[in-house]
Amino acid sequence: MNRLSILRIYAVLAKEFTQLRRDRITFAMILGIPIMQLLLFGYAINNDPRHLPAAVVSHDTSGIARAVVATLERTQYVDVRYLPRSEAEADRLIRRGKVMLVVTIPPDFTHRVLKRDRPQILAEADASDPVAAAGALAAVAQLPTEALRRELVGAVALHSADPAFEVVVHRLYNPENITSYNIVPGLLGVILSLTLVMMTAMAVTRESERGTLESLLATPARPIEVMIGKLVPYVLVGIIQTIVVLTAARLLFSVPMADSLAGWFALVVGVVFFIIGNLALGYFISTLARSQLQAMQMSFFYMLPSIFLSGFAFPFLGLPGWARVIGEIIPVTHFLRIVRGALLKQQVMADMGAELLALILFMLVVSTAAILRSRTTLD
Questions:
Q1: Each residue of 155-184: pLDDT tens digit?
Q2: Could you say which DSSP state residue 155 is in?
Q3: What fold characterizes domain 52-172?
């Protein structure tokens, strides 16, 4: 029986390290994925979101009303970024996701406070994301006992058991704080991204490995024609997946659905653009990958920020500024806003203009890159 040979083992080791060094994509994934996970979990993930955008509709311009707003901001849970002049303008802000909280102060607020008449202010929170809404409502809950301690002295001083005013809370779009109403629609975006990007990238890479893709491009068919022909069947796959997920969301979790044709039309448009964008990204990855393993690794590398920086797993508005900038580039972020907007907020095309534009831009950029890359690598 032959003994173990250190030289033979060394030769195999040298061969493996050489191969690993030449496989730059795999080597980059080995280093890149742990670093990305460290950054995401260490800096970007936040279960206690603060500095959420808020709007205040104040029909009372007195110092007492301003003290209420100042106390709200001192909690650090919300930042008052908008001062709309009417309830209709405030409703558009919260409906389109620009703010998480709208506080309305009535015109007779100061007069009734001084009379100890315990007036009410209205706090409307976007509860489509229950975690983010909880932080905003925690800030509002402190107002009756903390807001006017310095302003009300002497005969009108506050007593601990007698707050100067009340806060009426309305949880919009998800009044019962059902988490599945937020998570299940978001799953549609994650499922489509995971399956379509990886499926397309691996399928095209597999053909490239076997040599059939180069043979196809050797025909009179142009790269753009090849790409369209390969992606159209997967568009149908994505549509079928969408129907399955939405049907299950309704039957199993009672998730609200769009209640108008305009809402469904906006949702369908968003789904189609998102599917095509993901398929184009998968095709682009296939032009970079040399093997199916590399295609899978790059698809996984794309999925990490898509899950953690899009607003799916954690409130988007609670992410640090640099993470929100990256999140705005990711198409899943905009698709989640479209899906949740159509199903929970009954949004229509007019409410989704910016999100649809972002999906269209992503689709065009990635498709162009995929076509150009196909010319240089496979022609």
A1: 555 554 578 889 999 999 999 989 899 999
A2: G
A3: abc type-2 transporter like fold (3.40.1710)
